[in-house]
Amino acid sequence: MTIVVAARHVAKDYTVGKFPERRTFSAVADVSLSIGSGETLGIVGESGCGKSTLSRLVLGLEAPTRGEIQIGSETVARDGQLIKSRPRGLVQAVMQDPGSSLNPKLRISTIVTEPLKVTEPGLGRAELLERAGAALDLVGLDRSSLSKFPHQFSGGQKQRVAIARALVSNPRLIVLDEAISSLDVSVAAQVMNLLKGLQDRLGISYLFISHQLAAVMYMSHHVSVMYMGRIVETGTAAEIGRRPRHPYTHALLGAALPADIVQARAAKAVGGEVPDPLAPPSGCTFHSRCPRAIERCATVVPAWIARSPTHGLLCDVD
User: Are residues 58 and 180 in the same domain?
Assistant: First the structure.
């Protein structure tokens, strides 16, 4: 299988405060992942775990402090630098709020063709409009929409416009950063079904980022669970769904996907708050909230354990 994007030991540090009290923390710490052609990798975790920072690194909006990112066979970022030869148009994004991501002063024709003006600057107006119309066809919107403005659409329709804009340059990967979180449940389901249908038809890959575990499990071939900047468990959706091994994953699944009322009552919600990233807990960063923590969890940093070629986690407490 062709690898579309790969991140190897990627970290992103930020410095906050003023001298002499400046402090550094890692929003993303030593993350490795890969996404194959036509596959979806789901990233799930609580707010503040590093999901959106990871998406910005993949999109090339920021450079990783350490590690490298490849798109196809090309290295596009490494150790604090963005490589200028980054392939144009091969990675696009659909963001959380479709209302904010669409310029209210521009017609849909201008919004959808915007990426083409960067990736294929030689296209004439007629060809631009034809490509935009074809993109609208893919997302189930009438071509007459090209002459309209964003305020004339519902929230779900606006997100379809945003998806059309992402598709118009024929990308290999689309980063979906909380792309359904602002939509009603029924509309979100329609958008997810649209995305899955487009994937089957076009062979496109997705990085699907959400705090909604049920949506991640439905959309993804592989799932990675993030906590405080690290991936604490990864595996196929089937492996994660059938038998989560990390206590954080287990708690998220129990709270989000109870099979029946008995399981729902037995599920233990994750207690407490995500710790301050400027003062992370020693040892396992999850130990202060973990129902299975033992004494050594507070002092020993867990090593990565590979349970199978596709399933691994940062925990050795059974």
Answer: yes
| Residue 164 lies in domain | 100-170
CATH of the domain at 77: 3.40.50.300
Do 270 and 258 contact (CB within 8 A), yes or no? no
Which pair of tokens denotes residue 1? Answer: 């299988």
Please tell me whether residues 113 and 194 are part of one structural domain.
Answer: no
CB neighbour list of residue 65: distance below 8 Å, 6 or more residues apart:
11, 12, 13, 26, 79, 80
**Residue 160 belongs to a domain:** yes
Predicted pLDDT at 99: 84
Is 95 domain-assigned?
A: no
- CA-CA distance, 188 to 201, in Å (whole number)? 20
The answer to whether residues 178 and 61 belong to one domain is: yes
Does one domain contain both 245 and 256? yes
pTM exceeding the 0.85 threshold for the entire prediction: yes
User: Which stretches of the chain score pLDDT less than 50?
Assistant: 259-267
Together in a domain, 85 and 153: no
Total number of domains constituting the chain: 2
- pLDDT for the residue numbered 269: 57
Angle between helix 125-139 and helix 155-167 axes, rounded to 10 deg: 130
According to the model, what pLDDT value does residue 262 have? 39
Torsion of CA 141, 174, 4, 113, to 10 degrees: 60
As a whole number of Å, the end-to-end CA separation of the chain is 34
Domain end position, chosen among 123, 138, 170: 170
